[in-house]
Structure formats: C-alpha cells, structure tokens
Amino acid sequence: MLNNKMTELLQIQYPIIQAPMAGGITTSELVAEVSNAGGLGSIGAGYMTPVQIREQIIEIKQLTSNPFSINLFVPNEFFVIQDEIDSANQVLQPLRDELGIRDEDRMEIPQFEDELDTFHEQIKVVIEEKVPVCSFTFGIPSAEVIRELKQHNIILMGTATTVEEAIEVEKAGMDIVIVQGSEAGGHRGSFLLHAQESLIGLMSLIPQTVDQVNIPVVAAGGIMDGRGLMASVCLGASGVQMGTAFLTTSESGAPAIQKEEILYAHEDQTVLTRAFSGKWARGIKNKYISEMQQHEATLPEFPVQNALTKGIRSASSSQKNPDFMSLWSGQSPRLAEKQTVSKLIKKMIAEAKHLKETL
Amino acid sequence: MLNNKMTELLQIQYPIIQAPMAGGITTSELVAEVSNAGGLGSIGAGYMTPVQIREQIIEIKQLTSNPFSINLFVPNEFFVIQDEIDSANQVLQPLRDELGIRDEDRMEIPQFEDELDTFHEQIKVVIEEKVPVCSFTFGIPSAEVIRELKQHNIILMGTATTVEEAIEVEKAGMDIVIVQGSEAGGHRGSFLLHAQESLIGLMSLIPQTVDQVNIPVVAAGGIMDGRGLMASVCLGASGVQMGTAFLTTSESGAPAIQKEEILYAHEDQTVLTRAFSGKWARGIKNKYISEMQQHEATLPEFPVQNALTKGIRSASSSQKNPDFMSLWSGQSPRLAEKQTVSKLIKKMIAEAKHLKETL
C-alpha cells in the first residue's frame, strides 16, 4: 500500500516528500536526513543563486547516496511599477525605522529578464549535477526546459492547486503532480486562477484530481503524521509532501523562534497574506500581517514586494522578534513536534501500519 | 471499523449522517430513506415553524422506524438597523424588478425575541414528538435547553469549525461533535470566531480535534463517497456527515435546476458569500453572488438579510433561473451523482470495504 508507482519513480522507500521550503530552511542536513530515512528530501532553491545551488547539491551528495529533489520557481512575468514601490515603501519605512534598518536604499529591485536568466542557469546546474528529481512551483516551465530535463532522465514534479492545474501538469509531460490543499503553509502554487479562488481542501482536491489524471498524485497541506498519510492514500493519493512537520525538526534551518511560534500555534491562527512577497501565502498571523492587511490590494507583485520586505524579515529574525517574520505554517500546527527527522518518519510509518491493521 | 461509539449512540448501522440542509431539501422521503438505508436522516428545520416541524416528524415516522435527527439553528442576538436595511434594499430592488417581484413591501423583518420564542417552541415539539437525535448549528443552546433534552434521552450533536468550538460543544454536555471543514457547502457553523477565520480544511481539523475531545467526532465537508469516509476514519473521525452528496439524490427536495448546477460544477467554482442570508455560506458562484460581492461588508446580519432576499431566491427558483438562487455546494461537486439514496449508501459502504482490503 505504501509502495506504488510514485515510490518506484522516485526510488524511495516511503511515499513521503519533505516540502521544498525556501529561505534557508532546507539545510543539507535536513534534505539528506529525509532521504536517508527513506523519504525524499528537497532543496527549496527558489531564491538561491546557481552557485549556491551547486554548492548545496555537492554537500548533500556527501551526506546521502539516496535520491533527493530540488524545487525551482517558474518565473511569471511581472512589471516593476515605481508608483507601487513608492507607496509600499511609504508603508514599510516606519517598520524599517522601528527595526533600525538603515540600508534600504541599497535594495535591488528584481527584473523579469534577470529572473528568467537565473532560472535557466538554475536548470543548467540541476542537469550538470544530475539531481534525480526536480519539482516546480508557480507554473509549468517551457516545453524546451521540460524536454531537456527529461532527456537527462530527471523525474519531474509539478504543483497544482486545482484539478485543471493538475491536468495541465500532466499534459506538460511531468511524471508526478503535487496537489496543494488549502491547508498548506507557505506560498500558494496556483498558476491558472487567482490564489484565493483555488483554496480547495484536500478532502475535496485529492479524489477529484485522481479521477482526472493518470500520473501519481501527491497530497500536500496540513499532513503531519501517519493519520494524514493514510487518509491521503484512502482518497487516492500515492503519497504526501509535508512542510510544517519537517520545519520544526532539529535538522531544519528555520530560526528557533519560528519553530517555537509554530509549536505553540493553533489551527485557527494562520492566515493568507501577500504582504511578505507579493504572492499569497499562509502563515501565522503576527503584527506585520495585521498592519499590512489594509494595503494587501495595492502592494507590488511578486517578487518585487519580496525584495522590498527582505531587510525587514531578516532584521526581525536576527533580533529574535517574531512580529515581522514570515512565519509560514500549514493549518495543523497543533500536530507539530520538536523531534529529529528520523523519529518523525519512523513514527509516521508505525502509525500508518497500526492504522491499517485496526481499520 | 465502521461500528463505533457514534453508531452505538445513534443506533444506526453505518456512520453516515445526511446533513440537515434547510430550505425544503430534506423532504420526509429523503430523511426516511437515509435512515432506512442504515444512515441517519436529518430534518433541516432551522427555518421551519413548530407546526411544520411536527407535521414532518409525524410523516417521517410513517416512513421509517429507524432513528432520525432534527437540526435547529441556535438564535444569535442580532439588531435590526433600518439604515442597513434601506441600503440593502436599494441594491436588491433592481434585482426584484428584473425578476418581476411586486410584494417586497410585505416583507417581514425578523426580531430576535420572536426568533428565541420560536426556538423554544421548536425544542418543545422535538421533545413531545420524541425525536431520537437533535443537532445544533450557529452555537450552543442554553444549559437549561440541553438539560431538558437530555432528560428526555435525546442524543445531542453540536457543530464546530475549530478545535476550540469542539471543546465548547463537549463541555456543554453534547454527545457528539460534528466538525465542519472549510470544504463544506452551505452555512458556516462558526460561533466563536468570524467565519472567515475558521476555514480549516478537514485534513487539519479532524486530527487536531480528536486529540482534544473525548466525544465522537463526525467529519463534514466535501465528503462524497467511500474514499472520504475511510479518509475521515483514518484521521480519527467516527463517521461523516454529507450534504451535497445527498442534495443531488432523487429523494432530495432541491429544485431540479439546483441539482443540475451542482452536477456540472467544478471544485473551483464555489465561493463564500454572506449576500443571501447575512451569514457566510459556500455556494456555486452565480450572477447574484458576483453582483453583491462589493456590498458584502455592509449588508444586514442574519437573519435580516435572509428575509430581504427570500422573494428573490424563490422567484429565481420558480422561474428556473439559477442566477439569483442560493446554490449551496461543498468543494467536491465533481463527485456528485444523480442517484437514489440507497444506491449512494450501498456504493459508499462497498467502496469503504474494498479500500480496507486493498490498503
């Protein structure tokens, strides 16, 4: 039951993928430990330079000989609108002052052409370093990119938040589709509809998707233990992808303060916001999210807003002040535990086996 | 596995409750057929008069000797603000004109004291007619009401949308808690937080709730088949409550046009709106919801807005025009089928058994 086409394609023992959380959380230790424990570790490389990516791949290969994955953001065209930036900066400046940030004028505003170039360089590194699995968020790469990766026998996974998006992922030739339920923490992977129109709970999203696609479906969102794994399998998924559950493990690179915030949060304390990056994402509601709520509609788009808030997020983090950090979390923080990766995976599999026997 | 404390309390064969959909959907045939097929049929009596309730109970008893349930709305205090009513009427008048409605001036505006009186009369009928099970939405009735119902050995079920609400339901002395996931169609049962802050997907809501309460937990939202039943059981639920799945059966009293709209809808076509009743509810997006979106924040509260839109909804329905009807649906309309109650329940149980064997 836990071995199927998905585990076969990925050559892993258990159908458990560690979600590719961007921003320093997916340390080489985390990725390698997950793969060593029989799951699939993933580098959240969306914001990484090609050089950083190569370094981390080399490091992970020294820590595991099992398959692992890398996740890239598909660049979406965006426009740099100075008026939007100016009005966002007006709102953000008092927060920068409060945190004592002085170098906001050195902030680099991203340009679409540069992002596209970086994406192609990232792909090149993935191919050169023979990463076994590559997943994508925020859309589907061009047919050329997909063809090139497949020529190098790299297994491809796409992210979908609706049945229609899952069908597009399959049509593009990807091997596996990850369906992201409304429960999921972090960025919404939506690319056909607005993120707020594609908030489908996994109880609805999994069965409706598996009825429409032939590739393996992996469920993501709020899954933390053997119960979530078995429920996903009952609904027709081949496996699960978990973010928050791995974020609080010892091997994760998340700041201690972020781990603590999750460990003490309740299921009704996460909200969707685009105030951090310009794209909708789910995190624990804090002072920053509350204060920015009235400006949500007029903020610059991704990744411009992300660049504008970078200093605020990192100053808040280094001052151990959760008020202005992006505390991404799914809707199941009550199930988060402070534990090692190996313990988490072992417990999940034991729970799943026990459940199977008692059903 | 499908027999547990919940089926024992309710004295039913299968852990399947037909959701108490208000507004004429839960005909006596539907309720009785569900109970005859081994589930628990439920009267959606929220908007019914005590006389109507008594008539339907008597009718159902002639059609089944199995237990069935009745659902009541717990009255929440509300205020009748003439300014709000006037500005809502200004927006609604063009729609009334479009539908050729002429008697809007005879509209009766509800008063809280009357609603409370009606609620107590409803309770009296439930006791006199010895309805075996009574469930509540929109809150928890007073300790007196609960005590009285329990003295008459009526099994009580409360509705919760967060862990905290489920804890309150248990504390109040109810026997079973129904957790309503964000996937659910129709009205949100939230009573502690605003409805929009308590949109928790079932993958998150079920396990976090069962970890915190001792009474049986029933899952509601997007569940349509044996897969959803087994997934809910894996997550720790004792059973399921299904609305949309029963709404499209032959025995349901929903207008044919509403059934058709659901049968052709996709998972990303439902939205939350308070434009029909003043309380947030999930339905298929239509012309009315779209046009009212900009006024959501300023509309009168429940049940005032409900009274204001009654004529519009019924005219739209009798004109077979889905544009202004409340097309309540959960997030799994792709799984809805035109079938009899008996076929739906038999298929679910067969699927669940098959799944158990193949896991």
TrEMBL record, chains A, B:
SUPFAM superfamilies the UniProt entry points to: Inosine monophosphate dehydrogenase (IMPDH)
Family matches, as InterPro entries: Aldolase_TIM, NMO
Gene Ontology MF terms: oxidoreductase activity
Domain of life: Bacteria
Cofactor(s) annotated in UniProt: FMN
Family matches, as CDD domains: NPD_like
UniProt keywords, alphabetically: Detoxification, Flavoprotein, FMN, Monooxygenase, Oxidoreductase
Reactions accelerated catalytically: 3 propionate 3-nitronate + 3 O2 + H2O = 3 3-oxopropanoate + 2 nitrate + nitrite + H2O2 + 3 H(+)
Record Pfam families: NMO
PANTHER family reported in the protein's UniProt record: NITRONATE MONOOXYGENASE-RELATED
Family statement drawn from the similarity comment of this UniProt entry: Belongs to the nitronate monooxygenase family. NMO class I subfamily.
Chain's role: Nitronate monooxygenase that uses molecular oxygen to catalyze the oxidative denitrification of alkyl nitronates. Acts on propionate 3-nitronate (P3N), the presumed physiological substrate. Probably functions in the detoxification of P3N, a metabolic poison produced by plants and fungi as a defense mechanism.
Protein name per its UniProtKB record: Probable nitronate monooxygenase
Source organism: Oceanobacillus luteolus
